[in-house]
Amino acid sequence: MKENKLELIIPMKSIGKRADIALQDLMSTYSRAKVQAWIKSGYILLESKKISSKDIVMGGERVSVDVQQDEKILQFEAENIPLNIIYEDENLFVINKDKNMVVHPGAGNWSGTILNAILSHFPENKSLPRCGIVHRLDKDTTGLMVVAKDEVTQSNLVKQLQSKKVFREYRAIVWGQVLVNKSIDLPIGRHPSVRTKMAINKNNGKNAVTHYEVLERFVMHSYLKCKLETGRTHQIRVHMNNNTSPIVGDQTYGLKKIIPTKELSLALKEATINFPRQALHSSSLGLIHPKTKRDMRWDIDLPEDMKSLLDLIRYESSIPS
Question: For residue 83, how far is the Cα from the chain centroid?
Answer without folding.
Answer: 15
